[in-house]
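User: Before I run my own analysis I want an independent prediction to cross-check against. Here's the chain; please return only the structure tokens and, at the end, one sentence I can use as a sanity check.
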Amino acid sequence: MKRVNFYILSLFCLLLISACSQYSSQLEPRDQNIERVGVLYVSHGGNEVFNEKGIWDVTVQIFSYDENSPLYKSILWNEDFWPKLLKYGNAQKNLGKYSFEYERIGGRDPYPAAKRKVTKDLTKILNHKEGDIGIDFVVDKMTWISPEINEIAHPRRLYNPGVEGGSVLRFCDSDWRRCKMDRFDVDGPVERLLSIGVDRILMIDLTTAGARFSKTYDSYQIAKELISDHNKAMNDSVVLEWVNDPLSAMDASYPQSESKWTRSSGKPESNPVIDIENYPNPVISDIRLAEFQTEGIEEKFSDTVSMKDTGILLVNHGIFPGNEIYDPKINDTLILNNNIRDTLLQKHPNLKKENILGGWFGDLIVNEDLKGRSKLERSREMRGENLGYIRLLDQTIGPQDEMGYRYWEGLEALKNNGVKHIVIAFPQIMENSVLNLVEVPNQMAKEIGYKGWLEYTQYDYETYPKVGHPFADYWGIWVNTSCKSLEDPKVKQDCCLEMGGCKGGQPYPPLRQASRTESLDDLDPSLAYDVSAFGHLGYDSKIGPPSEERPVQDQYTGTWAMWKVSEDHKAVAQFLADKVIEHIEFNSKESDR
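Assistant: Structure tokens:
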């Protein structure tokens, strides 16, 4: 028994030494009269470089968040599946998509480096404020997914099997360089903060630019469980607070059931309904957050187009289907969108309100002919996308009117309004990544053409080192390019992926390769769009061929640009620090009442 106790004590000391080493520049000699507050800067996360190991690691992390899904129960801790894990879900699409996107920007996504810079600046600002407000701050970062395993909320939650009879998560493919089998057997940020004796932990979240979202709530729930276990084991009283959700709207609206509910559970036993207006988000509603985006939009106004002829499209992703019973992301996103619009109109009175629109990505559609329980699938009409499920909290509807378009509908409306220049912004993004540098530009170009891109004649070799632009030959770069022969379905031919048509008999767009009773997967060529000179909007192949030289028919004749994401990391960090301090001061006043 003495030997066991000695081992446990030694292990605890090693963990404490490790955490103290990481936070050595932040820790002050402990004064029990001064509160020690851990601050977690929470973001989405992603791979800095493209490789299969990174995709594999974030795939298992995604699988781990829905404890009632078949992937969690049957695959995640089944070692027979690990070598072929990248054949499941969206993995095949992601391998093709990210391979292209990372190569196009030179191989390294700037997002993780930006996140490190913001975290470093946030640490400096809060540490500098300690003497003024009598708090010892210790700052760390936490992500929803990351190849840096020690950034996710609780790595050992994946390492140790979550199902009976499961295997410890230890896997390295023979091709993966510098792969550690036990990489999930490490402390996460919550454990590190607990080990150095914090009194409370504050989460400040920019996962989707400050909007409350189920992904951050995943991390929040895991952190809350870790802290609860710690408090019971150590007779401690550490509390967890989420600056974006100070009144705990997501806790209050989360479904109640005997076992933990997730969206794979189906309809919950009890669904508490709240009035979200009574649960404000002080981060998303702060006008300074909108100003980061408006400044980036202003940088991409055209010097040759007046404000009255300028349009702005605010594009955004939706939520996971079924999560509208507790996830207020769409509500929060509308607050940010409206603040951006109002700020722009105040600064530029000649802008027209009807030319500032919200555009959401595509969603799955219903196909009643499908075999099996699910009748949902991707479709060409929804651009092959599945990230546009938009429902307001506890409602069956989404955004309406000028903020309720799909992005291609918004572009069409702006075109029909006669605008001559369009700035496209993705307000849920606060740092550059392959998403806004490559993916979204291609999604827009297939609609209104790559030749209208404002940088088209100049090119941008700093961002896109090899070719000077983000554009693929066709978007859906990951799809299969072999199609069934029209004469003999057993024979395969090259699909036609050119808007003007191809020699050889294959039509454009490619025909659906799956039968009507089989769900379209991500790789079906019918979901791909040619990234053409002037786009698909306003073009009808029945009327005549497209032109590479000029717009024809009713194609868009103006220019367009992606907004500029703020690279002022210190300003972002200052904003985050201000919100943390405001949260502390508000709670202090409330407790004094």
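Sanity check: Residues 1-13 have pLDDT under 50 and may be disordered.
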